[in-house]
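Ticket #4471: structure export looks truncated?
Reporter: QA, pipeline team
Priority: medium

Steps to reproduce: submit the single chain below to the structure queue and open the exported record.
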Amino acid sequence: MATRHKKIVETLEVGSSTDWNDDHTADYTSKKTHKCFMIGSNLGAHWDFAQTTAAANPSLEFIDHHEIAEIDSLVAGPTITSMRHEFSAAAGNITHINDSPTMITRVWIVAYDAATECAEWGLFESSETPFTANQDGAYFRLDTDALYAVTGSGAAERATDITPALGVPEFAQYVIELTATECKFYIDDRETPVATHLLTLPDSDLTMKYSTQTAGAIQTEIRTDAICLERNVYKG
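Actual output as written to the record:
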């Protein structure tokens, strides 16, 4: 949304209120930023655990002098441990592809079952069941000892194996840039996306979600200490 003035001025030129016309527009909603650090509040105050099945809920832990959220599916499967960001103190969605959301998060992969689909994190439609096929979302998936960038429309999905370039990092920063026409995935500070998807983009409202799964006797455990969501375009 443009900002309109009566005249265009040079940098540092002095102006006055009369330079502003009656239809001057300041777009205060063009960028909304939400940051979540795992310090200072109960994890359950902002995250819903209802999709956890036969396992312990995610929890705040103080490990290596650092406070983190631990999503641990434990060792006796089948179990799922999951947390999804709340809207108005309940499970719900908080953004959409038309917001052009960017999600940034730090994730430690502590342990995982290399023989099955075992972890996923990113943007999902809130009610989608973790680890089901064709979820509405844009996210990272750890499956059979490989890391994937995934987008799904609810009817189909696209998964790009990014392991050949990266392996499965023990710790990394993950970035998802979603727009109405494409989704770009980044790892750490790389300027080039590790994957770009133009099709099978999510068409539902979305929230942030982290899930781990144990199918047999090998636990999957991931940790996060920081999440940022920027909604770069908003049209009311």
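Status: closed, not a bug. The export was complete when the record was re-opened. Leaving a note from the reviewer for reference: The first strand starts at residue 32 and ends at 37.
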